Amino acid sequence: MDAVIVTYNSSGDLGRLLASEVTVDSFDRIVVVDNASTDDTAEVAERAGVELVRLDHNLGLAAAINLGFRRTSGQAFALLNPDVRVNAAGDVERLARHLADERVGAVAPALVLPDDSLQDSARWTPTPFDLVARRISGEDRGAVRATEPVGVDWAVAAFLILQRSAFERIGGFDESYFLYFEDVELGHQLRAAGYTIVYDPTVRVRHDHAAASRGSLLAAATRHHMRSATRFYLRHPRSMLPRRRRLAGTSRSGAG
Predict the structure, then answer these.
(1) What is the pLDDT, as a whole number, of residue 248?
(2) In angstroms, rounded to a whole number, what is the distance separating the alpha carbons of residues 74 and 93?
């Protein structure tokens, strides 16, 4: 299985990922798409001998992922943030087994944060109220907490394994999202096409997560997050409803 990593000024994180033998050995090939970094991220990738796609301007996350995907082969591919690392040999294979069911479009592991807590990385589709409450209180509204594999609305795209046929059927990531909510949209589109997103908490991956979108309202990451959320709700106004009311109005389980 091939892996795609999108980078932007990620030299430290990428260096640690590429120094992790268990992570590198989990994939047949690693494609790094660098979104016009101004640090030495591209040089780190080159020194490691992975395939590098060096962009001369920042395309945004979704477009860069799609570009990297076109460099991959096989029935599935992995999407990794530069700040993740696989814990044990065989973990990627364990995740990929879920794709033996052709109804599964994507699978995600549990993400372990630097303090050894679990990130709320598998979630139900958030309402605007959920987003505001998360920012104010820090509570993990909408998080799916499970001990066994379970279907979810979406999972954070820090580490995903995607069925190629499903990804192609929905046209890949929606490139109108520059940063944030592209994974929420992906989950929505996969489920609308009849696929399931599986969260498997029995596999754990390290994630050195920075949570940039929870910073000041004036921060660039926060502004991107707000714009992307607005775009999502304008496209999918039913997602503004509380989950129980949303599901009561649909005849198919899992529709967003």
Answers:
(1) 54
(2) 14
